[in-house]
Amino acid sequence: MTTLAHWDGGPGPWILFFPLIWAAVVAGAVTLLRRTAWRGRRGGPGRPPAADDSPITLLGRRFAAGDIDEDEYWRRLSVLDEQFGRTGKGGAA
């Protein structure tokens, strides 16, 4: 009796099918983990700001993310620099 595993005395072309199945399973698992579990560790775009983030740091992040353009960044930075200084801590003296 000839089976798929022993096609004319050898494994035949079906030997390539099983590694492809395992590659698909591994690729699917990695894709699933990247979209769910690993994203939570890195802190995606919706992460809450940390308690020690200053307004100047947040402004820099918005500029780096492309939320605001360069002119807007410099205009807001000059206002924040007057209020908070370069360190981003404290108020106006």
Description of the molecule:
- The protein is an all-alpha fold and 93 residues long.
- It is built from 4 helices and no strands.
- Helix 3 runs antiparallel to helix 4.
- The chain is rod-shaped and about 85 Å long.
- It starts with 16 loop residues before the first helix and ends in a 9-residue tail after the last helix.
Question: Secondary structure elements and their pairing?
Answer:
Blueprint: H1 17-35, H2 37-42, H3 55-65, H4 70-84
| Order of helix and strand elements from N to C terminus | HHHH
Distance between the termini: 93 Å
- Could you give a short account of the major beta sheet? none
What radius of gyration results from the CA coordinates? 28 Å
Proportion of residues in helical segments: 40-55%
Low-confidence stretches: none
Summed over residues and divided by their number, the pLDDT gives a mean of: 76
The helix tally amounts to 4
Shape: rod-shaped
Structural class: mainly alpha
